[in-house]
């Protein structure tokens, strides 16, 4: 694998016997020796675990990425959550309820993974509601009709699967293991969305028009979910070298397009890109360039719903303060009772 450049990279020929055994505490070892063990673990496609030495920049990159991912899961509950009370049947309500609840669970696995790196969950939440940490740009778009629930499942959870399946093999153990369970649930999310759309497409003209309208509005923001193009993604190369990321933004975007085109044909909707066509030579679909200025605007806080999403999250956090206080008081009482029992 490509060696990570930097001042801590050991000189070639560092004696092998100086490399600490994987997983042993290594505070006393020089950083150059620890770096060599770290790079060796990455090169052998093995996992870095919380107890292992890791470069500060690797830890910081992971905390940032996992926190953004966790925030996206939690904020991502809002656009669809708005439709729980308005779902057209009890069956759809139960499915949507389960799906939104899953997203809360994904957030919890991910905050726990960030905690194994020394991050503090209260601090991460504060950073989200202060606007100091980001979440996926896709959740700053409004859900106008119930067809949006289906299209989010199909596109947004589909894009999440493209992103997250390779993350099951990411180099940091707790993050990769969290992704295994998350991906199973994302697969259910995508299918429920597609099944909902199939049902609507077999319905009335008005329902078909509603699906097409939702497809038109969500297609481009979904392509933007994979992040900026590779030549404008400064941290990608280092994340690839550390095997945090396994594929570039553009590779994942292409995979998503290739996966979605036949599904759109089967569904009977038109993806809103006149230049979308199969390229025999490349063995992939060609497609137009997304509006990267729009992505920059939405990421920097100027999307249709940024203020609303963060305000809702802040209000939920403040309204939930008494639950956190009660949980802490309950835990303290329980600990005291256990201690009394131990003494008696
Ligand atoms: Fe999720
Ligand atoms: Fe999901």
UniProtKB/TrEMBL annotation:
Enzyme class: oxidoreductase
Keywords (A to Z) from UniProt: Oxidoreductase
E.C. numbers: 1.14.13.149
Position of the signal peptide: none
GO MF annotations, alphabetized: phenylacetyl-CoA 1,2-epoxidase activity
Region (Disordered): 1-33
Composition-biased stretches (Polar residues): 1-25
Highest taxon in the source lineage: Bacteria
Pfam families the UniProt entry points to: PaaA_PaaC
PANTHER family assigned: 1,2-PHENYLACETYL-COA EPOXIDASE, SUBUNIT A, PHENYLACETIC ACID DEGRADATION PROTEIN PAA
Protein name, per record: 1,2-phenylacetyl-CoA epoxidase subunit A
Organism of this sequence: Streptomyces akebiae
Lineage of the organism: Bacteria, Bacillati, Actinomycetota, Actinomycetes, Kitasatosporales
């Amino acid at each position: 694998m490509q060696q990570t450049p930097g001042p801590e990279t050991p000189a070639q020929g560092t004696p092998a016997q100086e490399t600490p055994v994987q997983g042993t505490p290594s505070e006393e070892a020089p950083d150059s020796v620890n770096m060599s063990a770290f790079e060796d673990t990455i090169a052998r496609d093995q996992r870095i675990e919380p107890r292992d030495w890791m470069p500060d920049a690797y830890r910081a990159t992971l905390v940032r990425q996992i926190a953004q991912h966790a925030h996206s899961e939690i904020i991502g509950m809002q656009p669809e959550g708005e439709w729980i009370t308005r779902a057209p049947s009890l069956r759809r309500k139960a499915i949507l309820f389960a799906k939104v609840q899953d997203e809360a669970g994904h957030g919890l696995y991910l905050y726990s993974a960030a905690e194994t790196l020394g991050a503090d969950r209260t601090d991460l939440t504060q950073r989200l509601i202060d606007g100091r940490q980001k979440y996926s740009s896709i959740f700053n778009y409004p859900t106008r009709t119930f067809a949006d629930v289906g299209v989010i499942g199909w596109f947004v959870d589909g894009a999440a699967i493209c992103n997250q399946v390779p993350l099951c093999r990411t180099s940091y153990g707790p993050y990769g293991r969290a992704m295994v369970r998350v991906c199973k649930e994302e697969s259910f999310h995508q299918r429920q969305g597609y099944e909902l759309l199939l049902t609507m497409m077999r319905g009335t003209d008005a329902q078909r028009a509603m699906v097409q309208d939702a497809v038109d509005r969500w297609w481009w923001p979904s392509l933007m979910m994979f992040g900026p193009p590779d030549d404008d993604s400064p941290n990608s190369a280092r994340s690839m070298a550390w095997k945090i990321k396994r594929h570039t933004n553009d590779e994942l975007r292409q995979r998503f397009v290739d996966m979605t085109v036949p599904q759109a044909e089967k569904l009977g909707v038109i993806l809103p890109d006149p230049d979308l066509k199969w390229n025999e030579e490349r063995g992939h679909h060609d497609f137009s360039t997304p509006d990267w200025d729009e992505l920059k605007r939405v990421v920097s806080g100027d999307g249709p719903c940024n203020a609303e999403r963060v305000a809702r999250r802040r209000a939920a956090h403040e309204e939930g303060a008494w639950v956190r206080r009660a949980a802490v008081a309950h835990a303290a009482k329980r600990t005291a009772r256990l201690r009394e029992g131990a003494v008696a």
